């Protein structure tokens, strides 16, 4: 088999892998040089000539003519008699170039060449995929559900690239069927071995930010800036937006008439409740807005410890805390301050920490998670509501209520 025909048989990978001819030739030269090293011990005295247009390749071995019997390295030296078989007028000390046919390397070497070529092309392919998706990190991407596993969904894009969306990167209400088109962001791309691992996420705050860019022209054009996004995927989100143009109402532009603009985003996120808030550098005002829909009476800020003590009317407390404590938790994440809610006229109230000798700290922490950090704030709640909002048993909550009641009956 001639070199050209052999290379053409190798080149069948080109169309499958969408690899250009020049790159394929570079990979071929690398593979052939490795084969020459294995067979002859060195490839330094070989010239490999590649014609990318024709896909042809020639290999020439260069040796020095020495006297018969003086050959010490048959790879780099050739005896006078052997040289004169190639060309009669060769003399001692001259260079001899002799073409090496690939078929002369032997069947095993050719099989090894083929395997190495496949490996190199796959490596090149994977490197290109890694670079391509690394540049797409943080961007929205669409792929088709290929396989549904217990802990992840495997997706394929139009080029057949595999993406993984683990369970914790999905919105809890997400339900997928094979063949569904799914949108998410490329959260991370890593090389595991030689294969790129592409992680897609629908739960990341960046996904919501990018949806704002896609769906709201003023955000896409840079007239409105998304300052920060915090989410409890599938439940609630808060988005702080700002505009450097006083003529633009950033919240109104993002929400649209009767919620027309934001409706598509809410639907994409499984009816996630999205609060859009005007950003401001005025910390008091920003915390007040972050606690919406609750109306704040007053705020005391401890900048050193990043805490804010917020006083509200009793009827506003549940709004500030929100279902499952979501509202106050997201307000804290959005502003970067831990928010303590106090009721107006609650001077006689007692902090739960005062009961640490009777109530375990982990139980107090469970109440604090949903914004209840005083005795009266717990006693004002319905027992069944507390059971549903905390990870505490009904009996445990009842014991706490009994202890707190005793404090005020004394």
UniProtKB/TrEMBL annotation:
GO annotation, biological process: DNA-templated transcription termination; transcription antitermination
Cellular component aspect of the GO annotation: cytosol
CDD domains in UniProt: KH-II_NusA_rpt1, KH-II_NusA_rpt2
Entries under SUPFAM superfamilies matching the protein: Nucleic acid-binding proteins, Prokaryotic type KH domain (KH-domain type II), Transcription factor NusA, N-terminal domain
Cellular compartment(s): Cytoplasm
NusA-like second KH domain ranges (all copies): 285-345
Domain annotation Transcription factor NusA first KH: ranges: 202-278
GO molecular function annotation: DNA-binding transcription factor activity; RNA binding
Top-rank taxon: Bacteria
Keywords: Cytoplasm, RNA-binding, Transcription, Transcription antitermination, Transcription regulation, Transcription termination
PROSITE patterns recorded: KH_TYPE_1 (PS50084)
Gene3D superfamilies: 3.30.300.20, Nucleic acid-binding proteins, NusA, N-terminal domain
UniProt KW Transcription keyword: yes
Task performed by this protein: Participates in both transcription termination and antitermination.
Family of the protein in this entry: Belongs to the NusA family.
HAMAP family in UniProt: NusA_B
Summary of subunit composition and partner proteins: Monomer. Binds directly to the core enzyme of the DNA-dependent RNA polymerase and to nascent RNA.
Protein name: Transcription termination/antitermination protein NusA
Organism: Aureitalea marina
Gene: nusA
